[in-house]
Amino acid sequence: xxxxxxxxxxxxLVSTSLCQAQETLNANDPNTFIFGGDxxxxxxxxxxxxxxxxxxxxxxxxxxxxxxxxxxxxAGLPVTGGTAGSLDNLWLNFTHRALNYQPxxxxxxxxxxxxxxxxIKVQIISVGAGGDYPKNPNYNQITLSQADQVIxxxxxxxxxxxxxxxxxxxxxxxxxxxxxxxxxxxxxxxRIQ
Length: 193
Description:
The protein has two helices and nine strands. It is mainly beta and 193 residues long.
């Protein structure tokens, strides 16, 4: 019996000396956080999705025909009314967040050919006060066609603010001496790329 107790005591002594205890950090001693413990670092990468939104805003009450004023017009939708006098108070608004801060441009084009004998021109005539964006417009008059043409030059991330007096004020000029009609579904398109 004495040999058995000596053997058990010896096994307990050997097994205790071979065990390793987990390190305990003393919360009252900040040095143990910096110099002790299981220190590791983990990197973090966050991908932010790019955003590109373009919108055209008219002056409420000045756009439309026969008193049926439209509250707003979205870029890419066809013009459903208006006179030459009401086509100079449209505002091009945008929001843009690029992947890796890649510069972008705003292009204008039509989705169909402009009818023979008709000319449609668009021009940026002023820049609004709202938003946070680099102001880099093309002030030249652009004759619209199906070919993409730059209306706003290279810019980085930014936003113009929404609505009137924000972004770029557009003026349209339509020369139609023969009285040609626009085809059904004709659209002026603005695109950020």
